Amino acid sequence: MLVFGMESSCDETSAAVVEMGEGVRRIRSNIIASQVETHRLYGGVVPEIASRAHIEAVTSITRRALDTAGVDIKDIGAVAVTTRPGLIGALLVGVCFAKSLAYANNISLVPVDHIKAHAAAAYLSQPDLEPPFLCIIVSGGHTSIYKVTSYTGFEEIGSTRDDAAGEAFDKIGRFIGLPYPGGAAMDKLAADGNPNAVDLPSPALSGDTLDFSFSGLKTATINYINNLRQRGVEPPHADIAASFTHAIVSAIVQRAETALKLTRMKTLVLAGGVAANSHLRRALTELCKKLGVAFVVPPAGLCGDNAAMVAAAGYYAYLDGVRADLSLNASAI
Predict the structure, then answer these.
(1) CA dist., res. 277 & res. 167, Å (int)
(2) What domains can be seen in the chain, in order of their start residue?
(3) Does residue 3 contact residue 76 with C-beta atoms inside 8 Å?
(4) Nearest-10 crossing angle of helices 215-230, 237-263
(5) Would you say 241 and 235 are in contact if contact means Cβ atoms under 8 Å apart?
(6) Predicted TM-score of the model (pTM)
(7) Is the dihedral of CA 82, 86, 90, 91 positive or negative?
């Protein structure tokens, strides 16, 4: 079955064609129109600008996705589209376009949760992967731990109570003068620093919980930098990046180990934009080796927002009988 995917939850407009079926998980095309250079001028994503950019890109990338896949729209069995969560204006562009595409061509329309789509990216990179497994999704908007009980069954057992890890990386990166997006620059800079140079609080909350809180870590880091600047001392950027990265990675590894022992899952999946972070990937690889657990993480190209993961998630929702009509709407949460 060929599934067309549409993603527009933040600042990437993406369209893809994925072939799914018994023993088949193949990306036929996955076109992404990035807005990074536009938003870099402002140090972060500007929602209104993002929405307008989606409008400008959505038709052309759809044509490119179909042409690259070598298929016609009439060959598509379902149209899957991200409906939540994300920037509401950005989401509406994708949802409205997908509804029109499905209606005009009499194709089934399938709504997709962006978070579940990130988890589905692992299916495209690991053909033998199947539930149940433990999934940690770390991105600019989310840091959550799920028990994945089936292809569409998710039970959240841990989450951030405020900011997400990816947002924290971007903010501290911007604060020390790194280009947007700060997360990728922080990953590289951290390799040159001392992870124990700055004593920072852990974002892993204490007590009987698997939750996180990244606001305190951000505040402590900003205060440390400001104190140095007020004394006329240039902050050690590499050491700050390394220490900040160490605090986040250590917290996620700690939570992953606890969650794996509690759930007794034999497979850990890491997904989301921050799954591309080299320090996090390495630390979780070592943890899984220690525990004798299989570790699955998509390649970097499938960690960020993309439509192939939406199409994969949409396929399994389609098998579960999930359909939408023209009343389908987007939701920011």
Answers:
(1) 13
(2) 2-122+303-319 (3.30.420.40), 130-300 (3.30.420.40)
(3) yes
(4) 160
(5) no
(6) 0.96
(7) positive
